[in-house]
Amino acid sequence: MTSTPRACVFAEEKVMDAESGDAKPRFPRKSSRAALVVLVLTAGLLAAGTAVAFRRYENTSRIAAAYELALRGAELRESRPEDAALLGAAAVSIRPDEVTRASLADTLLLHRRSVVFGTVNVDSVAISADGSLAITSDLHTGVKIWELSSEMDDSVEASDISALKDHEGWVTAIALTPDGKVALTAGSDDGSMSVWDLTHPRRPVKAGGMVVGDVVNGVTKVALAADGRTAVAGTENGDVTLWDLTRKSHPVRLSELRGAKSRVGGLAMSADGRTVVSAAGGSGVVWDVTDRARPVRLATLDRPGSTVEGVALSADGRTALVGGLTDVDRRNGAHMWDLSTPARPVHLATLPARMSEVYNVALAADGKTAMTSGFGGLTMLWDLRDRSRPVRTATLKGPATLANGVAMAASGTTVMMATPRWGAFTWNIAGVGEDPLRTFCDGPRYFQHVDRQWWDRWMDGHAWPPALDEAEDIAPCSQL
């Protein structure tokens, strides 16, 4: 097993800092960049043995060149997005690793971001399975239904088609069935909830309503089974109640899931309505609600020295993602659990966060794509196909330093973010996480390449990467 030279690790950290916002993206001056590359090359030559050192030199020099291109692309992302994408693609073609792929994906996704016009201070978002319908709860403009459509430029356009007007106070918790036909909204002040029939989303109908009970400061979280016949609600004072919505005009309170008497910060239900995961008092709890009148507490999702906040479940209930302040070393992140045997959950992996506590999480229906967010304005996308080794595929950057909530379509192709000042945002993430280079190369970009003339014209006096001295150009798509 070979280790990555320290200089390469340093270069990788510089790219990741630019991606995460830990440092302002800045391309090194010619002298410092050259020194970095020399350091990288020297690390390879000093390894051991001439043949080994030469192979190490070749590999290390390519890493240096790739990270140099990726870093320059990150710097140009806002001002010259097309050039930034080309540089990112060139980096991936030279060194296809997690760092270069994520850097290219970040560039592509920045320009797939769309503002949901008409939103201001959004507390919650929900989205249908196919990504065609969304709901936002705005503390200024109320609860609105949006029709989502994909545009030619790969963005997602949101059109305001109707509103859900019932609660007098703020609506801080919403849920939507995968088919987009049933919605649940909850008020922040009185513990009231409303059930909505969205069969015709342009003409929503209030089907029924209920009150959770003696609630202080209202309902914090709600969730629905896929068929819309079972609901669960959590409150500020820790009550978690299960409801039968078979007759939506007459909801029936079934039972209470008795846990910690503190704010419910996370709530999720499997598609079949048989498994619930709740988070309160810093602890995550797995419930079997197959017998809805007699819920059974099965297990806790706790890690030493951690607190639990946001919760998400895959459709089959086998994968759970919980956020909070986690890890024994007080690092921040989210934890992934295998609930194949719900009474004996198995911790699979940690999804680290570089800047903040993670308290918003979302999962695609198949559990293979995830979102995590918190303070710092960063929402990260993750590839969970290998559940023991999550891979960060991209960072969704909004203008705010705080995300109130996130939502992901079941297909994992459309996502939303709620912010407290700038409103809601949508992204089309189709294809970007799985293979950002192929996404870049689809269409007219296929024949783009970076040659020395292009470099000299557009790279503001920065020298051609020393490690690429023998190459006349870089054609990222030629290898596909």
TrEMBL record:
Pfam families cross-referenced by the UniProt entry:
WD40
UniProt-recorded name of the protein: Uncharacterized protein
SUPFAM superfamilies assigned to the protein according to its UniProt record, in alphabetical order:
WD40 repeat-like
What InterPro entries is this protein classified in?
WD40/YVTN_repeat-like_dom_sf, WD40_repeat_CS, WD40_repeat_dom_sf, WD40_rpt
What's in the keyword line of the UniProt record? Membrane, Repeat, Transmembrane, Transmembrane helix, WD repeat
Q: Which regions span the lipid bilayer? A: 34-54
- Which ranges does the UniProt record give for the WD repeats? 164-198
